[in-house]
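Form 12-C: Joint structure prediction
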Amino acid sequence: MEKREPQVYIDGKFYSKSEAKISVYDHGLLYGDGVFEGIRAYNGSVFKLREHIDRLYESAHTIMLRIDKSKEEIIKAVVDTLKKNNLRDSYIRLVVTRGCGDLGLDPRKCARPTIIVITDTIRLHDGDQKEKGMTAIIAWVRRDAIDATSHEIKSLNYMNSVLAKIEANNAGADEAISLERSGYVCEGVAENIFIVHDGQIFTPRSSTGALPGITAQVVMRIGAKLGYAVNYRNISPHDLFRANEVFFTGTAAEIVSVREINKRVIGGGKPGPVTKRLIEEYQKLVKDPKEGVPIK
Ligand code: PMP
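Section 2 - Result
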């Protein structure tokens, strides 16, 4: 039997993947004018869906994009798309663009936003990287300043991350780490970053312009529950190199160890004990239906 194509939600209707298209006049395409969320469903429950929807609306608020649907309606659109595709485990991309306008960038020309839900099965950093840890480089491109197109806003403007990723690719590394303007560590291209030093867990302050990660919040909570001191701190490149453990967090990446940065071996050069404990607890939590919204 022929496999049915994935069904994509666009503005209240479902389209087969090959037919799921938006206008070339959509300002999401023309100007990166829009916001998005990457969300994950585990075992029939959408992990932290409400938190992702809250963040989507906060991003939309800052860019003055009015989403003409309630949060409950957006939650329903996500759940309906998963049901339509018979998915219980999925990577979900929720996108709200400014919508169609003319070729000028004035958002007032865009009558209504375009709302898209894609449910897929992509898995990043799987297999080897999860087992052995990843390699990373510190990229030359600095994170956009907090008074610029800051990554605190989860907008469709990801060129800053794309440039960093290109540097990682060119260097043959798995991932890139971005510094903020002052030279302190900010985050990965689509992950927050943590270090473990003398049994304590640290992550850069949110004022570096990093995205306030939902996974990072969860990991900080798990770390504290396991009895570790978990704190925000300025982290320099030197702090990274001399850390006992470094790891990334993100919805797609989950928790993944970084074993080498700019050719410096980090700690034991493999996932460390603190990272491993956090991964174990995180894997339990994501499958807990109380932590998400059920697909039903
Ligand atoms: N930083 C950036 C720039 C990201 O795109 C992401 C992925 N959403 C993260 C951090 C991690 O955030 P979260 O844990 O909410 O997925």
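Section 3 - Comments
The chain has two domains: 7-122, 127-286. The domain at 127-286 is CATH 3.20.10.10 (D-amino Acid Aminotransferase; Chain A, domain 2).
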